Amino acid sequence: MQQYLGRFESLAFTIMRVVLAFLYWSHGAAWLFGWFTERPPVALNTLFGVAGIIEIVCGTLIAFGLLTSWAAFIASGEMAVAYFYAHVRRGSIFPLVNEGEITVALCFGFLYIATRGGGPFSLDAMLGSKRRGY
Asked: Model-level pTM?
């Protein structure tokens, strides 16, 4: 089974990269523009405003596979900070209890993408980046 599905590894990685980037980007859009939520937008000069900017910029870069390793590394770090700043403060270190599951998943998904790069279906690969990651 692994050999059969292994043929699709590059495509599966690309789909994972784009989906995780969209989930991340959509949190930034919620913070900055109030999209996808009933919350009002936050001010840019707040911690959540800065998080929104990082999420929009890095989410876009990761989705298109441009400067992917750098953007994913920054996104991973931002999610680690978000987990301890916003979720652990809810009284538990366990993601299921403090509602931080997506934050942890994005943190480690982006850490993996940072180590691998954009893959063959990315702007990094198209532009001939030295660190293609495949």
From this structure: 0.90
